[in-house]
Write a structure and sequence with these properties.
Elements: H1 10-21, H2 28-36, H3 44-56, E1 61-63, E2 71-73, E3 81-84, E4 90-92, E5 104-105, E6 108-109, E7 116-119, H4 122-137, H5 144-151
Parallel strand pairs: 3-7
Antiparallel strand pairs: 1-2, 3-4, 5-6
Length: about 160
């Protein structure tokens, strides 16, 4: 925390620990809900202020990939993110990202580098494929994929 130039308060440490242990890229509200059980007196405004301070100090990334709310990433280094348009899950993806803040491109100074990819995640594609196979079996028939989903407790 000191390497970020911030005093390591209990609030900052708790929020940072939550982000470190939750790789789902949570929203500020999700961070607040996640830490309030441990610290019930922690105000929602404090969580927002801590996230803002950590972002400004370069300790975390704020992602504006989703329209609904900003999401937060414990890894502050530039790297691409993928948002599934079906389930809304947000993933880190492994692609080379050679552009970094401080680079100059065509005479322009890069201050922030973010790559956002949108589409359908592997899990949703798999589920869609299972659903299509079920529809091919027709009404009143059962398929192996239906049995597998039902055995797994899916509706």
């Amino acid at each position: 925390m000191r390497k970020l130039g911030l005093v390591p308060t209990i609030q900052r440490l708790v929020v940072l620990e939550f982000l470190e242990n939750n790789h789902t890229h949570p929203t500020a509200e999700e961070v607040y809900q996640g830490v309030r059980n441990q610290f019930p007196s922690l105000a929602k405004a404090t969580v927002y202020n801590v996230l803002d301070a950590l972002k400004k100090a370069g300790g975390i990334q704020e992602l504006t990939i989703a329209r609904e709310a900003a999401r937060y990433d414990y890894n502050p280094d530039p790297h691409p993110h993928f948002l599934c348009r079906i389930c809304g899950n947000l993933y880190d993806v492994d692609l080379p990202c050679s552009i970094r803040p401080g680079d100059k491109i065509g005479g322009h100074l890069v201050e922030v580098a973010q790559v956002y990819l949108y589409g359908i995640c592997a899990q949703c594609q798999k589920q869609s494929s299972l659903d299509k196979n079920e529809s091919k079996t027709g009404p009143g028939r059962s398929s192996a994929s239906t049995k597998r989903r039902n055995d797994a407790g899916a509706p």
